[in-house]
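Our preliminary data section would be incomplete without showing what the modeling component actually yields. Below, a chain of 219 amino acids is followed by its predicted structure, encoded as tokens that our downstream tools consume directly.
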Amino acid sequence: MESFPLSLRLYRWVVFLLAAGYAVYYLIWGSYAGTFAGPFRHLTIWALFLSFFCASRLMALTEARSDRRWDALIAATAVINMMVVFLYWKLYFADPTSVTSDGKLGVWYREYYLHAVGPAHQIIDAIFFHRAFRRIRRAAEVLVGLVVVYLTWAEVVVRPLNDTPVGSVTSGLPYPFLNNMVFGDRLFFYAANVGTAIVFLLVFTVLSLIVARVRGVRY
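Predicted structure:
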């Protein structure tokens, strides 16, 4: 079984404990009042829990409690985290009210962990340490499957069971701007972002190969 340096073990412990702490916080103290599913309406929280699970599996691998690598899920989770960062800050800087109810960021350390630090932790491990991008076809299947499940959840379950946010077209979708789009426009937006996610998957795969080549590591 592969051995791991102390520095990587410490890094993964930090990543795991931070992800666990935030996951517990949102599970227990997330904003559930007046909404169905509370924080679990948002892709950001799905990404957090996926990252927490991946961190737990990497810890099990590091401590020789398991030899299952979970490459496809870890690769897909890295891409979903990248999409969370990309979409959130792109939309926020274009129009803060498109992703927040009042146009203002929440508690700074939670916002920056969810939309910067936490995703970076998971992406760094997937590319530089775990080398998760070994089976790109399987990773793409898992990635698209997770995205489709989330979008179905948002459209079929979350939207009908929530009255807010309210938009010019519909209401209940987790992000305010989506409620200003007709269904056809939303489908186009979803498809475009699935395409963007696949591009990120390809970029991460190439970057992983370059990193492995530079480090002289067999991929």
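The chain has a mean pLDDT of 95. The chain is about 70% helix and 0% strand. Preliminary results of this kind motivate Aim 1 of the renewal.
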